[in-house]
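Kindly review both lines to help learners:
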Amino acid sequence: MCAAALSPQVAVSAAAKDKAQDTAFVFTDVKVNPTTSVKDQNKSGTCWSFSGLSFLEDELLKKGKGEYDLSEMYVARQCYIDKAINFVRYYGKTNFGEGGGLLDIPYVYNKYGMMPESAYDGLEYGEEKHDHGELAAVLTAYLNEIVKNPNKKLSTAWLKGYIGILDAYLGEVPETFEYDGKTYTPRSFADELGLDMNDYLPVTSFTHHEFYKPFVLEVPDNWDHGLYYNVPMEELLQIVDNAIDKGYTVLWAADVSEKGFKWYDGVALMPKVDRKKSMEGTELDRWVKLKDSEKEDKMYDFKGPVEEITVTQESRQQGFDNYETTDDHGMVIVGKAVDQKGNKYYKVKNSWDSEQVYKGYFYISMPYFLAKTMSIMVNKDGVPAGILEKLNM
């Protein structure tokens, strides 16, 4: 299946390019790899599951195994259970919530197997789309009461009661299910898919740990204390470029809270904001009456390519250390693009449905990627040989 058939291309006429030259973004896709359809996590904090399974679906496409739609809620459910056990073992002194990390996908695949969406959609509570507000609140309240230990000794019933809540909302997991005329268990289905989780490399770039060594990434949703390999940020960029060039997509965890992240406009930038210049064209009397938040919005109200900040390894580290860069969201990098001025971008698939200018996709600039990437996961075959050697692989 060709890339053009799987992800929307941005076709722009010469006349449209001229008109938009300085007033709008005009993206030209340079390379877009095959990927499955855009999904919708709706009101659930399960971006990590949606993006992680999209990544695995793309791996299956790459291997010529066809197009699959894997069950995000099966993965989320299994992590909900193990996170609860972990939370209770730590007397409630560790993280529990809807969120997760890139490593939760191989964790579930190896320990529990996998299911297709058709066998387990996790919608057993009267909703057409995922909405985990009530579920997350109930699970959290339940666990908080358990760790208070009112009987001075945990009963044998607490975990069964907890799983009962998951069954009521997401549905019980069937022991076996039918798929394409065959009967599977989650384990046998994963074995049939034939993916090896050892093929995937989690990578990040921070200076508070030694480069080319693995370390436990210190973010709350890394609840199982998973290891990430550490490389300089220039090599993080090389890994993504090389993977895309070789036909792989890249699982991407990043901060999306920046003012330059314009989801509905389909672009994410790190503009170089000149606070004095931002007043040009604005009556001073009107400007000073604006709230601080309104001034910020105006300064980031770009209509096309703008000058962006220069990201260094030091500034990247500072953003992580002072909580400006946080572990917000999981997505999938599927390709490369350029704008009308030749600036480079990555094309990203999101899980916020497709009612947006690029139908569920958007473009991130290189400064945004360098500044706001928390981590990536990539097939080792997409990593440059020289970097693998430095990692002793």
Q: What stands out?
A: The chain is about 35% helix and 15% strand. The mean pLDDT is 90. The first helix runs from residue 3 to 6. Residues 146 and 152 are 10 Å apart (CA to CA).
